[in-house]
Amino acid sequence: MPSIFVGQGAPPLIDHARIPGELAHWAEAMPRPKALLIFSAHWAPAPLCFGSTQSPVPLLYDFGGFPRRFYELQWPAPPALWLVERVQELLDQTIPQDPGRGLDHGVFIPLLCMYPKADIPVIQMSIPSLDPATLIDFGRQLAPLRDEDVQIHATGLITHSFAGIDVTDEEGLHPPEWTRKFDEWVTEKISQRDFDALVDYRQLAPNVSQALPTHEHFVPLFIAIGAAIDQLKSAQYPVTGFWYGNSIRSVQFD
Predict the structure, then answer these.
(1) Structural contact between residues 49 and 97, judged by C-beta atoms closer than 8 angstroms
(2) What is the per-residue pLDDT across 209-233, written as a single tens digit (0 to 9) for each?
(3) Model pTM greater than 0.85?
(4) 5: left (phi over 0), alpha (psi -120 to 50) or beta
């Protein structure tokens, strides 16, 4: 099973002319998961914890200022109850649960496009660190799940800055230079499998302070890398481009 990094977005992403279709096509092209183990930029950094195992898993409408219809979106997936015990076994620790923590919009907006039937069991976990090396090791510990048909599903954004919103059209035809250069650098390092450089991105990547004023949206990528790094065959980019000033690139690690 691939480990993946999904470019997320605000609720209007589901109305985009291109991106929802690309997400749907991507999901159809991958093996069907037995379950999704989800990590989102919207729950980082936080002490290691499982989200809700209520059935269906609730949604967290953690956004404001949008039309009412976005607060009525539903994605009623079942919880992956068995996966809770399996993850604790792999990490060799007891992990608490936050029963009130539903799937945030960085999770359910892309999933509405990828798996609209909401028929794949899910469990979300917090991201315990912003340190890339720590998160690669964390992903490594979870790697055996890939042989058990579990999709390691990390979601965030390659770039996350509001500075480019006013200078970029919705279709992303004219991204800010700092967004484009940072996205190109990250893509190059992934394609070259230069993960040491990626780990040191704060010092080596161009335009870091502009592309990532904060780092929580970028670092989920390292969990997906860690889950695949020891047996990596290829990296693909099933969704690319820019949306409101940021890279919407997604990555599949096989």
Answers:
(1) yes
(2) 999 999 999 999 999 999 999 999 9
(3) yes
(4) beta
